[in-house]
Amino acid sequence: MVAELDKLIEAFAYHVEAQTREIFNGDAKTGNKHAKKAIAAFGKLCAHGDAGRDALAVLFNHPSMDVRTSAAAFLLRHRTAEAKAVLEEAAKGEGFIPWSASECLKRWEEGTWALDPADPVDPPVKRARSRTRSKSTQGRGRGHHRDKTGE
Question: Could you give the percent of the chain with pLDDT greater than 70?
Answer without folding.
Answer: 78
